[in-house]
Design brief:
The protein is an alpha+beta fold. The chain has 2 helices and 6 strands, in the order H-E-E-E-E-E-E-H. It has 2 domains: 27-70 and 140-171; 72-138, no CATH class. The chain is 50% helix and 18% strand. Strands 1, 2, 3, 4, 5 and 6 form a 6-stranded antiparallel sheet that branches. Helix 1 packs antiparallel against helix 2. It is rod-shaped, with a radius of gyration of 33 Å.
C-alpha cells in the first residue's frame, strides 16, 4: 500500500464572540465599560446617522418645494449690460444687472437680478421674484432638489457619525490610559515580590 502524505492538521484559535460581555476572572470593569461604549457608538452611528440623514433630506426637500411655490418667474428688460460671468448652481453663466419687470398685479418695478451673462441693455430676460415682489434666485427644479437633498442628508449622517466615532475613540483612549495606570500601580506592588521569587 502506497503511503501518502500525512494529513495536515490545521488548528484555529477560537476567538470567543462578545468576550467583553462574558464573565471571566481577567475581565475588568473597564472592559465592560468599553463594551457598552462600543455598542453605544455603533447604535448611534447606525440609528442616529440614518435618522439625521433622513430628517435633513426631508427638510431640505420641503424647503426647496416651498421656494418653488413662493417664487414666480416674470418677464423683465435689462437696463444695464450683463458682462461678468458668475456660475450658478445650474451651471449657467449669470451676471447681476439692473432690470425692469412687471409683477403679476401689473405694477412696474426696477431692481438688480441675476440674468444670463452677455446680454445687452434692452434685451428681454426672465427673473424670479418672491412673495414680496423682490428679485430672488431661481429655485431648483424637483430633480436637482432631490439630488441636493440626498447629498445634504448623507453629509449630515456622515458628520454625526464622525462626531460619534471621535467621541467613542476618545472614550476608549481614556479607558486605555486608565488601564495602563492601574496595571502600573499593580505592578509596583507585585513586581518586587516577583523579582524576589525569580532572583
Amino acid at each position: 500500500m502506497r503511503k501518502g502524505r500525512p494529513a495536515r492538521r490545521t488548528y484555529r484559535r477560537a476567538k470567543p464572540l462578545l468576550w467583553r460581555w462574558r464573565s471571566n476572572p481577567i475581565r475588568r470593569r473597564d472592559d465592560l465599560l468599553e463594551a457598552w461604549l462600543l455598542l453605544a457608538v455603533w447604535v448611534l452611528i447606525a440609528v442616529g446617522g440614518t435618522l439625521v440623514g433622513v430628517v435633513t433630506a426631508e427638510a431640505t426637500d420641503r424647503a426647496f418645494a416651498r421656494q418653488r411655490e413662493e417664487r414666480t418667474p416674470v418677464r423683465a428688460v435689462l437696463l444695464t449690460d450683463a458682462r461678468r460671468t458668475t456660475a450658478s448652481g445650474a451651471g449657467k453663466a449669470l451676471d447681476s444687472a439692473q432690470v425692469r419687470w412687471t409683477s403679476p398685479d401689473g405694477s412696474v418695478h426696477n431692481g438688480t437680478a441675476l440674468v444670463p451673462a452677455g446680454q445687452k441693455t434692452g434685451s428681454p430676460a426672465r427673473v424670479w421674484i418672491d412673495t414680496q415682489g423682490k428679485p430672488s434666485a431661481q429655485p431648483p427644479d424637483p430633480a436637482t432638489a432631490a439630488v441636493e437633498a440626498v447629498l445634504l442628508g448623507a453629509s449630515a449622517a456622515l458628520a454625526l457619525s464622525g462626531v460619534v466615532y471621535g467621541a467613542g475613540s476618545a472614550g476608549r483612549w481614556w479607558l486605555d490610559r486608565r488601564r495602563i495606570a492601574l496595571w502600573d500601580r499593580e505592578w509596583t506592588l507585585v513586581g518586587p515580590r516577583w523579582d524576589h521569587k525569580t532572583g
